Amino acid sequence: MINFNQPHLTGKEAHYMYQAVYNGKLSGNGEFTKKCQQFFETRYGFRKTLLTTSGTDALEMCAMLCDLKPGDEVIVPSYTFVSTALAFLREGAKVVFADSMQRNPNIDAETLEALITPRTKVIVPVHYAGVACDMDAIMAVAEKHNLLVVEDAAQAIDSYYLSRKSKVESRKPLGGIGHLAAFSFHETKNITAGGEGGLLVVNDERFVRRAEIIWEKGTNRAEFFRGEVNKYGWVDMGSSFLPSEVNAAFLWAQLENIEDIQAKRKTLWEKYYERLAPLAAKGAFTLPDIPEYATNNAHMFYIVLPSLEARTALIKYLKENGVGAVFHYLSLHSSEYYKPKHDGRALPQCDRYADCLVRLPLFYDLTIEEVNHICDLFDTYFQ
Fold it and tell me: Is the pTM higher than 0.85?
């Protein structure tokens, strides 16, 4: 059986976790936490980063930092994981769902203006499959209407946006464009913090101090440890968002090997694309779309079938032949929980991806031979 996913171990995880245990500092914000955060700030130029226990927690911190009031509106794509919306609902906001693009599952920036009202406060682009949304267009709309932008970059580690705002193309890391951003290090992501983990990114100076306070359970404890105050206490809202040093140690082993991990995943992704392109050209399905303004971090290889029935039949065939392919999100606007609250607008592209998108196995320890085997099955099925 070729599983859909298999977490990769670099070989150093247990060593660093052992080191964390015997350092005598197991709670968060120790040596490995600081090393990981410094890695992200140095490699990608993020203003401030804070490790979290999950990508969901990072999104919840983003929502808290947006200082939302009941009735404030937040624009979120419907084709995303529930955490993207839930983080803002927990702060009392009204979620307004946006449709996806026809060419890929990312939010359709051309529809945003029509969704903005006097109560709109935040736009939340989700970089699906690690492929950039049209951030020039999104940031222009946000600036025009004085809105915050929170990037859900859960799948987008080590991926970039190629801005066309100036004559000279600039390369910006995803998560480093909006005011705030959230990454996930769940075991299905390119790198993991031992099964669960996340990262809050703060790019706007206005939010740096409060982010650290929220991260430290609403206290100014971090300032105390830096010697900036002579005692610490409860100064704001917050929660226990810090991961343990054991998780940070696991993540550090992955970060040390990010170049190798990314190179291998891209090789596998490109082999899929090469082998499946002839079938796509015949109309059997469509392949992943990488816009000219986006790079590919090889987080996911997906195809889009013509119908729900075609997808169901293909997944069944692959499973019968030992391949774990899966579908992905259901449209949130159609969910049992939120459908009664939705404004009734049809979001056809979101529904199309919910019905027709299939994810194929893609993980570091997958072999080229296994990818070729999967593609051979495709050739047989669609002949």
Answer: yes
